[in-house]
From TrEMBL:
UniProt keyword DNA damage present: no
PANTHER family: PSEUDOURIDINE SYNTHASE FAMILY PROTEIN-RELATED, RNA-BINDING S4 DOMAIN-CONTAINING PROTEIN
Stored Pfam families: PseudoU_synth_2, S4
Any one GO molecular-function label of the UniProt entry: RNA binding
Keywords attached to this entry: Isomerase, RNA-binding
The protein's name in its UniProt record: Pseudouridine synthase
Length: 248
């Protein structure tokens, strides 16, 4: 049965469906020797598909891993500046996995890696609204008004952020710093840093402790584990275990 080219690529573990579309548009994919640049092109099971001149194999076994991303690692499969990537961290995983979403170079914490392009695309869709819980060390000690602003939404790049959960975990009056727990479900570029900056509290250090119901409390920096069957099913069904992180 014919399938869309980008879906077949994602199922084969080449990249997420969205990233596969980028490869197609860049002219890096051929079908039966012919370069294909049209999204939505359908292919048959017997068609020969190559990416960068390398044939792709059939659909791999779907795998799902949770990584406690270390600081100083880029969330990408390859880096043109030769920096260490999350794929380097999990280099002994046999399947060709890729990260779901991004964490900044200097941000640590929960990151999902998989070769399931369909699930990755679902999790990154704005309508999915998966909770992401961050622990941020910030300059200054946020007031109740600042926390309220974070909960109701602040202006970032001319657009108001969605409602969030925010609370102070601890603070140090002597050093003039605080640790804030912030729960969001959007995924804008540098969003947590920009939200806290907008209320006058620049981020010193940032860690994502939970992605949906997946926590990294039992993983050391750089460690990862395979997801349990029931965790995968929860992600696929959209039934997330939401834990209180401050009142809205």
């Amino acid at each position: 049965m014919a399938e869309r080219l980008q879906k077949v690529m994602a199922q084969a573990g080449v990249a997420s469906r969205r990233a596969s579309e980028t490869l197609i548009l860049a002219g890096r994919v051929t079908v039966n020797g012919q370069t294909v640049k049209t999204l939505g092109t359908k292919v048959e099971p017997h068609d020969k598909i190559e990416v960068n001149g390398e044939p792709i194999e059939g659909a791999e076994k779907k795998v799902y891993y949770l990584l406690n991303k270390p600081r100083g690692v880029v969330t990408t499969s390859a880096d043109d500046k030769n920096r260490r990537t999350v794929i380097d961290v999990v280099s002994d995983i046999r399947e060709r996995v890729y990260p779901v979403g991004r964490l900044d170079y200097d941000t640590t914490g929960a990151l999902l890696l998989t070769n399931d392009g369909e699930l990755a695309n679902q999790l990154m869709h704005p309508r999915y609204k998966i909770d992401k819980v961050y622990i941020a060390k910030v300059k200054g000690i946020p007031t109740n008004d600042a926390l309220k602003a974070l909960r109701l939404g602040v202006q970032v790049d001319g657009k108001k952020t969605a409602e969030a959960r925010a609370e102070i975990v601890k603070f140090d009056k002597h050093k003039g710093t605080a640790t804030v727990q912030l729960t969001i479900h959007e995924g804008r570029y540098h969003q947590v840093k920009e939200m806290l900056k907008a209320v006058g509290h620049p981020v010193i250090k940032l860690h994502r402790e939970r992605y949906g119901m997946l926590e990294v409390n039992d993983l050391l920096s750089g460690e990862y584990r395979e997801l349990r069957y029931e965790e995968v099913q929860q992600l696929k069904s959209g039934k997330q275990v939401r834990k209180s992180a401050g009142r809205l």
